[in-house]
Design a protein that fits this description.
The complex is a heterodimer of chains A (about 650) and B (about 350). Chain A has 20 helices and 4 strands. Chain A has about 650 residues and is an all-alpha fold. Chain B folds into 3 domains: about 80 residues; about 120 residues, Cupredoxins -  blue copper proteins (Immunoglobulin-like, Sandwich); about 90 residues, Sandwich (Immunoglobulin-like), CATH 2.60.40. Chain B contains 9 helices and 12 strands. Classes of the chains: A mainly alpha (about 650), B alpha+beta (about 350).
């Protein structure tokens, strides 16, 4: 047995390695079969499920976008009528924001944060399973509604009174409101996992100033989720109550206020954009570091920029409401804040360029996506500063100019880093490399397609084309540019097909990646690809920000965790000094059953308020079953804190 | 080599021609880029400023990234991580950040001053118009202290050139947004709130506005026309609007009026001087004087009127106007009557 053939964390492990691995495997492996699938509490399985499910929703949301582009490809087109079009654009927005972008980022966090921190699982594994199932049920509810022609049709922002009981009768908006509630639950759960895992389960030695930037970005994003999602929970709750039990929160005729909805919605809705963008920044930092073979320049500034972005993003929401009767002086504060947030973004871009400048770039597919990100995000960011100006926004607000801006930000600033990260970490998750040729084809098709689709939309907005229109008159002269945009969408679709072909062919080949195909710097590359159920046989020690680069030959490890029960190492929050051992729960069916009970609660309550009672009772049963002691709990000795 | 260069030049010229064609094919009467009043002019100048600054910043950053990539990839090894390199990079990043702050600050000041200027149009001798957004049309009322000098119309606003116009706006049902890009930015019309905005047309002409806040099925077809005309033409128009249309003189139009008053039309529409007095739908007293019907969707022609009355749902699906089945003779009479409502 040679050291080179083994995962790096094993090279200096003790002689009983095989035996230990066998024990660990028995302790940590998931039960086999479909039952095992339902009961799994592994961060890797759940993270992967989040990512795969979110990609399915990306494809669905993309199909919806394609339908819209077909309809708008020429004036007075009749492929879609207004009823169908309004459902589709609402589904597109809701899918992309709630079912794709946020869950995929959370899924990446759930999968990679424990790996990068050098721990075996997230802090609350069963809760993690519950989070995934509520997300899945919520997504299925939305699409079930759409399939029976009850897709929501009042926009992903659901402004009242249009979304209220009087102007949106039927169940469409109720389905939207409850889908949102499901995704809020899963988002909050995943955020809690990421925060607690990052604070308490870091590898010994990984003090706050050695946490990888990717993990920092996930931590900031999780904090934002904790503060932003309750707002939309309140908002969609009020809306559901207005619609289902005749409250009048938003009804001006009864002392309610239509603007209240907008304030609460955007108090969530603007941080939401940064919830998608901040983890992408972390991904870019990881990619830049690996592909320039250089630690990212200005680590403290990068971390502070991420945190500043998180804070400032809560002070921007009124820039979605510049056309409402909010006094000018008040609006100016939001112009100032919206301008301010460009500074941390700018600083990070400068630091990446500095890193590239001092490094030695490798033009692998992930790095191309980073360069594409810089190009697209600069455009989106600059138009973002433009729309921060109250007067200018009055002209372009709710026009195609904003459609162009937001897609440059979200595709350029979110999806491109995500695709780069996908190519980068795919070998770690599957043990197989993706094809570089198809990857580059994917990149160039996407890059050309996205620019072709969205760049002309700036001009369309200036020529007066409003958003969310299902058609336009030929006299308006918007036809040619819309046709260009539609052709761009076709090119983008070809890019996505290249990605799918790439994934399918890679999955079928024999594993060829090895543990560390890119010579990465962070701990996830220290274990095998894919990682075993127990992730690390011995918990690694982080002696720098880039532990795999600074200790090329000897990654030090700590031992002392039990092999026969699921234990993780708890370390102190600031300096990651080992603190205690913590036993983790075994696989369980109860999270799945509890998720079903919560599903009953929210879905039945759309049709009958009694659903709230029935669902609460069922969920209570679920949580009781969840709390039943297991054999492991009975066997386990009380943990003995280490003395130090 | 040379010939391929020529071909390349030819392609470039062709591309520029296509672009110019695209630009000129676009509407000029609903465009931010064709300002017709002081506010739209200021907003257009702000846009040009933003465009220039953003282009410069974009070119600077992308060139820096390009140079960094090119330089670094020519190097055999990454730079050594020594003090001097670090200090150099820190200086450059700090300088770039400082530039960013300066640019953003100047942008902020320019934005503020523009906002201030927009809000301070002289209020003296202003014309006040109430606009109410309704799914999916615009109710327009000219305010006057003398009740008999009030004018109610729909989907078409006439204003005299060079006179500040105050729009007092609200919405009847859901949120709409009033936006005539050649004249000013948009203002949301929110049920339960009254908002105000100003504009002034300095150039006579026709400007189109369109609802800019998603308001349901026919959001796409909720447009209006602003007709900016010299004072005399405006006064003439206003005097015309104050007149009650005379009772129809010929038998066809009289038959048409009977159709109007005996069919469902009368349930929703108002025609001055008749028993039709409902205000659910647009006021039709001077329908024939307007350029368009169905809120800027169709030109006001005989054929379009007929088609609209018979089957509005195929033209604006989801519209609040129901189809009215009429015998051909009745339809002809009705349209003849409507065409006389000058």
């Amino acid at each position: 047995m040679t050291g080179a053939a083994l995962p790096r964390d094993l090279r200096y492990a003790d002689a009983d390695s095989d035996q230990n691995r066998g024990l660990l495997n028995r302790t940590w492996r998931e039960p086999p079969g479909f039952w095992g699938w339902l009961t799994s509490v592994s961060h890797a399985s759940i993270g992967k499920r989040y990512i795969v499910t979110a990609f399915v929703f990306l494809l669905l949301g993309g199909l919806e976008a394609g339908m819209m582009r077909l309809q708008l490809g020429r004036p007075e087109n009749s492929i879609l009528g207004p009823d169908r079009y309004n459902q589709i654009f609402t589904m597109h927005g809701t899918t992309m924001m709630f079912l794709f972008a946020v869950p995929v980022m959370l899924g990446m966090g759930l999968y990679f944060v424990p790996l990068m921190l050098g721990t075996r699982n997230v802090a609350f594994p069963r809760l993690n399973a519950l989070g995934y199932y509520t997300y899945l049920i919520g997504g299925c509810l939305l699409y079930a509604g759409f399939l029976v022609n009850s897709g929501p049709d009042a926009g992903w922002f659901n402004y009242v009174p249009l979304a209220g009981p009087e102007f949106s009768p039927g169940k469409r908006v109720d389905i939207w409101a409850q889908t949102i509630t499901f995704t809020e639950i899963s988002g909050l759960i995943a955020a809690a996992q990421i925060i607690v895992t990052t604070f308490k389960q870091r590898a010994p030695g990984m003090s706050l100033n050695r946490i990888p930037l990717f993990v920092w970005s996930m931590l900031v994003m999780a904090m934002m989720v904790i503060f932003a999602l309750p707002a939309v929970a309140v908002d969609s709750g009020f809306l559901a109550m207005d619609r289902l039990i005749d409250t009048h929160f938003f009804n001006p005729a009864e002392g309610g206020d239509a603007l209240l909805w907008q304030h609460i919605f955007w108090f969530f809705g603007h941080p939401e954009v940064y919830i998608i963008f901040v983890p992408a920044l972390g991904m870019v930092s990881s990619l830049v570091e690996t592909f320039t073979r250089r630690p990212v320049f200005g680590y403290p500034v990068m971390v502070l920029s991420l945190i500043a972005t998180g804070f400032i993003s809560f002070g921007l929401w009124v820039h979605h409401m510049f056309a409402t009767p909010i006094p000018q002086l008040g609006q100016s504060f939001f112009t100032a804040a919206s301008t301010l947030i460009a500074i941390p973004s700018g600083v990070q871009i400068f630091c990446w360029i500095a890193t590239i400048w001092s490094g030695k770039p490798r033009f692998a597919t992930p790095f191309l996506f980073v360069l594409g990100f810089i190009f697209l995000f600069m455009i989106g960011g600059l138009t973002g500063v433009m729309v921060a100006s109250v007067p200018f926004d009055l002209q372009v607000h709710d026009t195609y100019f904003v459609v162009a801006h937001l897609h440059y930000v979200l595709i350029g600033g979110g999806v491109f880093p995500l695709f780069g990260a996908f190519y980068y970490w795919f070998p770690k998750v599957t043990g197989r490399m993706l094809s570089e040729r198809l990857g580059k084809l994917h990149f160039w098709l996407m890059f050309v397609g996205v620019n072709l689709t969205f760049f002309p939309m700036h001009q369309l907005g200036l020529e007066g084309m409003p958003r969310r229109v299902y058609t336009y008159l030929a006299d308006m002269g918007w036809g040619p540019l819309n046709l260009v945009a539609t052709l761009g969408a076709v090119v983008t679709v070809l890019g996505i097909i290249a990605l799918l072909v790439n994934v399918v062919t890679s999955i079928r080949k024999v594993p060829d990646a090895g543990d560390d195909p890119w010579a990465g710097s962070t701990l996830e590359w220290a274990t095998s690809s894919p990682p075993p159920a127990f992730v690390f046989e011995n918990i690694p020690i982080a002696d720098s920000r880039t532990p795999l680069w600074t200790s090329m030959q000897e990654l030090q490890v700590v031992s002392g965790l039990r092999y026969d029960i699921r234990e993780v190492l708890i370390t102190s929050t600031l300096d990651a000094i080992p603190d205690s051992r913590h036993s983790e729960p075994l696989p369980s069916i109860w999270p799945f059953l509890t998720a079903l009970a919560i599903g009953v609660l929210f879905i039945v309550s759309i049709f009958n308020p009694l659903g709230t009672l029935i669902g609460t009772a069922l969920a209570a049963v679920g949580f009781l079953g969840w709390g039943l002691p297991t054999q492991q709990d009975l066997d386990e000795e009380p943990p003995v804190p280490e003395t130090r | 080599m040379k010939s391929s260069g020529k071909r390349w030049q030819g392609d470039l010229v062709a591309a520029i021609q296509v672009l110019m064609l695209l630009a000129t094919a676009c509407s000029r009467y609903q465009s931010v880029q064709n300002p017709a009043g002081p506010q739209a002019q200021r907003l257009y100048s702000l846009w040009i400023f933003l465009l220039i600054v953003a282009t410069l910043v974009f070119v600077a950053v992308i060139s820096a990234a390009f140079l960094a990539v090119r330089r670094a990839s020519r190097r055999p090894q990454p730079l050594r991580q020594d003090e001097a390199t670090h200090r150099g990079l820190t200086r450059i990043v700090a300088a770039a950040t400082g530039m960013t702050v300066v640019i953003l600050f100047s942008f902020f000041i320019y934005s503020l001053t523009t906002g201030r200027a927009l809000a301070s149009l002289p209020a003296k001798s202003a014309l006040t118009i109430h606009v109410t957004g309704v799914q999916w049309w615009w109710d327009v009322e000219y305010v006057d202290t003398v009740p008999s000098r009030r004018v109610v119309t729909a989907n078409e606003i006439h204003v005299p050139v060079g006179v500040p116009v105050q729009i007092i706006a609200t919405a009847h049902d859901v949120i709409h947004s009033f936006w005539v890009p050649n004249l000013h930015g948009k203002k949301d019309l929110i049920p339960g709130h009254t908002t105000a905005t100003w504009f002034q047309a300095d150039t006579a002409g026709l400007y189109r506005g369109q609802c800019a806040e998603f308001c349901g099925h026919q959001h796409a077809n909720m447009a209006l026309w602003v007709v900016a005309e010299p004072r005399e033409a405006y006064e003439k128009w206003y005097a015309g609007q104050l007149q009650t249309p005379p009772p129809p003189s010929d038998s066809l139009a009289r038959a048409g009026q009977d159709v109007f008053l005996s069919k469902s039309c009368v349930m929703c529409h108002n025609i001055g001087g008749t028993l039709a007095g409902s205000h659910v739908g647009p006021d039709l007293t001077h329908l024939a004087s307007r350029r368009s019907i169905a809120a800027g969707t169709l030109a006001n022609t005989r054929e379009n009127l007929q088609a609209w009355i018979q089957d509005p749902q195929s033209i604006k699906p989801g519209s609040r106007m129901p189809a009215t089945s009429l015998r051909p003779a009745d339809l002809k009479a009705l349209v003849a009557y409507l065409e006389r409502l000058k």
